Structures are given as structure tokens and as C-alpha cells.
Amino acid sequence: MATAYPTITGVYTGRSVEPRHLFKSGTPKFHPSFASLDGTKARDTTNSDNVALLRAGLPLGKITSGGKYAPSILGLTGVLHDTSVVTTVMTLPATTVTEIQRRIGASGTFKIYGPPTAAGTVATETVTYSAIASATTLTITATSADFAAGSLIMPADGSEAHSQFVVNEYGLDVLDINGTAIDHPVRLLSQADINTDTIVFYSSMDASVKTGFKAALRTNNAGSVLTFSDDR
Question: What angle do CA 74, 42, 124 make, to 5 degrees?
């Protein structure tokens, strides 16, 4: 049943919505499933219009406890994390720090994945942070390696294993009309040709991170066939 929301008569600024097409060509196929996305853990940190609206192309992974899906990337490093310069502080974009605090808390652990220098050999490290030092910095236990700009900042709850995407062309709003987080069904890809231009975060990833990210999607989606537009 439709609900009317009366307001003052007048002229308002118009807004438009355009679909995002995750698939480059062909018709995607999906596994039969009853999988769901955890609305409380899901935000699209780079959607400046509405972080609660998850855009098509947002990478997802399965949370170990409970088996629901959630975003597998919280953000990217914007600058080199150089251990010869800083040991107990990590500088990240404000949107990433905000999501770390919201999803994990004022202290905890997350994972970082990337190379020590641009296009270098990638590694994963678990980072322990004890405080949100500022809007763009965390107080951390020193990492054992440097991490280049474009490295992934990921949760450490199992969902960091990228395996799926939000596929809905007009996105998923994880808040209801009262601002309460709600879960959504997740369609699990079994075959698709992915348009990498539409993958959230992808354009800002380090080159080696992009390669590892695509490999992880194939590995974590066993039995599926995924191709990517920038591989040809």
C-alpha cells in the first residue's frame, strides 16, 4: 500500500537516478541460494550521496559467524604507510576511519592488503588499533611492512574474502523509513563478465592489488566462471 508524505507546496531541486551496470556482456548466472546481506554491517563508504545505499559493484564477502554477507572492503590507503617514518599511527581517508569506527568500534583489528611499493608483491597483515586518533588517523601497533597507496583496508570477520558483489542496478538501501538497518537477499554469481569500471574502489586500487583482488574473487567463488573487462 502506498503511503503519502505531505509537505509544503513549492518547487524543489530535482534528483535523478541512473542504473549502474556491473555486467559488461552476456547474461549473468546465479547459484540458487537463500543468502542474505547484514544491513547493520553494510555501508558504501565512497557513495557520497548516501553511504547506506549500496551501489552495484560493491564487493562482498561472507562473515564467518552467522554466514551473512557484508562489504569486504572498508576503504583504501590514500598515501604510502611508511614504517620508517611512522610506526604507531596510520593515516586513512576520513570515510574509511568513520566506517572502521562504526563497524568495528573505537578499538579492534582490521586487515590491510597491498604491496610495499607501487605494483610490488602484495601481502596481508592484521592491524591492531587502540584508538581513533583523529578524523583521518588511527593509533596502531606497528605494521611489519610498508603498504603503498591503493592498498585495501578490510574487516577481519571473514567477509574480507571477496566472493560476490551487490548486483542490483539501482542499489540496495540498508535503512528502512525509520532509519533502522535491514537485511537484504543476496544473489550469488556463478557466471558473469564483470565491467571493472563499475567495481566500487577498483579504479583507485594499486595495480598488484587489482590482480590479487580478481584472483581472490575466482578462488573464493569456487566452481564459478568470472571474467573481467580489463583482462582483454
Answer: 30
Longest dimension (CA), the chain: 61
Please, which pLDDT band fits residue 1 given cuts at 50, 70 and 90? very low
Three-point CA angle 185, 189, 190, nearest 5°: 140
Strands 59-62 and 164-165: antiparallel
Give buried/exposed letters for 102-134 (b at 16+ CB in 10 A, else e).
Answer: ebbeeeeebbbbbbbeeeeebbeeebebeebbe
User: Does pLDDT of 4 surpass 70?
Assistant: no
Per-residue burial over 60-98, b = 16 or more CB atoms within 10 Å of its CB, e = otherwise: bbbbeeeebbbbbbbbbbbebbeeeeeeeebbbbebbbb
Cβ distance 113 to 210 under 8 Å?
Answer: no
Residue showing cell 530535482: 14
- pLDDT of 198: 98
